[in-house]
Amino acid sequence: MNRACLSALLSHWVRNPLQLFAFLTGLALATGLWAGVQAINAEARASYDAAAATLGKGQFDQIVPATGDVIAQADFVTLRRAGWLVSPVVEGQIDGVRILGFDPLSSPIGFGVSQRTQTGDLGAFLDGDRLFANAETTGQLPSGIGVVTDPSVAPGIAVGEIGVVQRLLKRTDLSRLVVQPEQPLQRPALADIAPHLRLKSASQTADVGELTDSFHLNLTAFGLLSFAVGIFIVYSTIGLAFEQRRGMVRTLRALGVSLPRLIALMVIEVLLLALVGAIIGIFLGYIVAGVLLPDVAVTLRGLYGADVAGTLQFRASWLGSGLAVALLGSLAAAVAKIWQIASMPILASAQSRAWSMRSGRARGVQTVLAATSLLSAVGLAWFGTGLTAGFALLGCFLIGAALTAPLLMHPVLAFAVSAARTPVARWFWADTRQQLPGLSLALMALMLAISANVGVATMVSSFRLTFVAFLDQRLAPELYVEAANAAQANAIETRLPDSGVTVLPLLAIDTQVAKQPTRLFGVRVGPTYRDNWVFLDAQPNAWERVSAGSGAVANEQLARRAGLWVGDSVALGEDQTVALAAIVADYGNPRGQLVIGEASFRKLHPEIEPRQFGLRTDDPEMTRRILVSDLGLAESAITDQSALKATSLQVFDRTFTVTAALNVLTLVVAGFAMLMSLLTLADLRVPQLAPVWALGITRRRIGKLELLRTLVFAVMVCIIALPVGLVLAWVLLAIINVEAFGWRLPMFLFPGDYFRLFLLSVLAAIAAASWPSLRLMRLPPARLLKVFANER
User: Fold this and answer.
1) Which helix (H) or strand (E) holds 158?
2) Using the 8-state DSSP alphabet, how is residue 436 labeled?
3) In a 3-state reduction of DSSP, which class is residue 334?
4) How far is CA 179 from each of CA 54, 163, 190, rounded to the nearest angstrom?
5) What is the tens place of the pLDDT at every residue in 730-743?
6) SS3 content of the chain, % helix, strand, coil (to 5)
């Protein structure tokens, strides 16, 4: 019996291949976008983990030079003899590949390469002049270097025994020393035996995985939104299939098939179809991820300095995630219809009126759910804190707005019916209102896609407008230079002022302020800072306070994370406390920063000497010639303002390439949802259109009216989507961005962009309706006449 019943259920899809196509395609698109995003995230996470294991950053304390970039090997020997358990590390670059050399005998377990290599195959590691790198990085190294492929090594990095790397880099010094977690209880202080070195704790090193969490969370949110739009197609198709099989359900029940058995077989049917769609979707997701991953890698490298592999691997995490959401999403789409069958009497399941009454009650439930979702969003906006609450607010608001859209259209269409003056117009508006329940899911999907495009476009455009102004503010010096050594730095400070150049040294060190990892800067206060920096909030004469040593300027990220604002005091050392004189916007920077005066900085850290300088000059070319010809700086050490700004904007534009692509894909899926809904409803429309045709309205005119109906729906959706998208943009800018990055962006409106988006959306809706309308125009008269011979 089970086999016969399941065969009867599946026969519906054989007789209706278009519905089967809509189900599988909708689920495949939904799963593909979700799986693609998860594949990108999984590849990035794997790269972060490999980088953490390879470089040891965020895991081990390190000893670094207080000034300069290198440590003498004699310092390593001195520290080891004094009882410090440290391991030497040397770093450099060969053809753009980062080369890391370490001592496997003294380094912590898991540092440099995998534990297997260190503990199980140490002889092979020490044998011969060769490096270890993953397959992608191996191809970037010169052919003359021996390389062993090791997938555990982070992308963009090659590691090797320290002696081998020193020979390849032609160096005899070290870059840093890694400190073993366990140290002897009695050992001399670092300042007593090596005062020119300093200890950098692991807590001061930013975890790239933590910095990029918000970026990946945004990608996941887009994937989830795209999945929801695709699931609307599945829900609509399943609903239509269940409605068309009302008679079959009645017959099976009358023949003795029990309700539990029938429900179980329907669940099996949905799962079988969902499995096929999920497999197709996972392969689509692999293609999407492969196309978008290079842009994601550029974004993460530009924003966070995180190297991500440019090639994609099949991983169990995103494969399992894709299958799970596809199966659960399909079951969720089918559960409402299965519940209707389970709760109705046997014979009522084939009656149209029974299903209509159910739909009427469903509208009341939809109203309650919409109100609950919107009220929950308001509560989260008012009382919620944290990134999770921000995304919960976003989800509740979008769900509530989607559920509200059809409810808002209903009274508008009812008014149009009452206002119509001709019989055809009255029929058109009444029929349009009748079609609203069948198209509501497709309209919700289109509304969500347009709203997401409006919201994200507003956020990105506001960000870019603010970012350009921010660059003009912060990149005031005409030239930026980096000295290679102390002699060049001293020459810059003494020689250039004689040529009329204002030298602005930049002193910097990583430390902790208010228990937050912070980049502390010392600046020479002058007209450049006073005239160009715009504060979010400040005390009177803020820069004078900074110059006098009684004040500091914090970026918005540090102020928000530490719970500080203007007037609050922060401790810079055991005996030095300053008040926050101003808060400055620092867009695009994930880290906290604090700016103090040059004299205060030198008092705190006398060992730090400036290596980077901003130069204010009326003749940049003359200044460049002096730097190269007289002071011996390399051309690569000099950056002009325009080049730096262009590079920053290029990174910015690449950052949102993935977002733009996901926006377009979401809109395409929404258009496909409308197409599938119109196609699957076309056959059901024949009994309603036949009487109108019989009264004298031609098939061509009926087709044009169907096209006009879609245009009406599209315009109404666009009108509703605009305020929803603007609220979405506000949530992204004022809540999500603050929780994720620590800074808030001003919001700007772009009417021209909205008009172009609406025009594109209306054209997409018309394109989706063209095929069903053409089918109606070409519908054979014999099929229309058959309606009158039917028992209906």
Assistant:
1) strand 157-161
2) H
3) helix
4) 15, 19, 12
5) 988 888 878 777 77
6) 65, 15, 20
Distance of CA 23 to the CA centre of its chain: 28
Query: What pLDDT score was predicted for residue 114?
Result: 47
With 0-12 CB in 10 A as exposed, 13-18 as middle and 19+ as buried, what is 3?
exposed
Determine the Cα–Cα distance for residues 233 and 504; give it in Å rounded to an integer.
60
Class of residue 721 by CB neighbours under 10 A (exposed 0-12, middle 13-18, buried 19+): buried
729: left (phi over 0), alpha (psi -120 to 50) or beta: alpha
Name which of 706, 83, 112 is nearest 435 in CA terms.
706
Closest by alpha carbon to 710, among 681, 753, 740, 739? 681
Give yes or no for residue 436 having a pLDDT over 70: yes
278-287, 303-312, 441-450 — which is least confidently predicted?
Answer: 303-312
- Give the pLDDT confidence score for residue 153 in this predicted structure: 75
Residue 42 neighbours by CB under 8 Å, 6+ apart? 315, 317, 318
Digit-coded pLDDT (tens) for 85-106:
888 988 888 877 888 888 887 8
**Is it the case that residue 353 has pLDDT exceeding 60?**
no
Determine if the pTM surpasses 0.70: no
What's the rounded Cα separation, in Å, for the pair 790 and 792?
A: 5
The total of other beta-carbon atoms located within 10 Å of residue 327's CB is: 18
- C-alpha 265/C-alpha 269 separation (Å) is 6
Q: How deeply is 738 buried, as exposed, middle or buried, from its count of CB atoms within 10 A (0-12, 13-18, 19+)?
A: middle
Pairing of strands 535-538, 479-482: unpaired
- What is the token pair recorded at 760? 């594109």
**Mapping DSSP to helix (H, G, I), strand (E, B) and coil, where does residue 480 land?**
strand
Rounded average pLDDT over 117-121 = 46
> What is d(CA 258, CA 262) in angstroms, rounded to the nearest whole number?
6
For 454-477, write each residue's pLDDT tens digit. 887 888 788 778 877 777 777 788
Is residue 772 within 8 A of residue 672, CB to CB? The reply is no
| Residue 390 token pair | 């921000």
User: What is the pLDDT, as a whole number, of residue 117?
Assistant: 44
Give the number of other CB atoms < 10 A from CB of residue 571. 12
- Give residue 716's pLDDT band: very low, low, confident or very high (50, 70, 90): very high
Residue 576 has pLDDT above 60, yes or no: yes
Query: Phi and psi dihedrals of 214, rounded to 5?
Result: -65, -35
Backbone angles phi, psi at 396, to 5 degrees: -60, -40
Q: Return the closest-CA partner of residue 436 out of 709, 237, 718.
A: 709
3-state secondary structure of 66: coil
Angle between helices 213-244 and 17-55 (to 10 degrees): 160
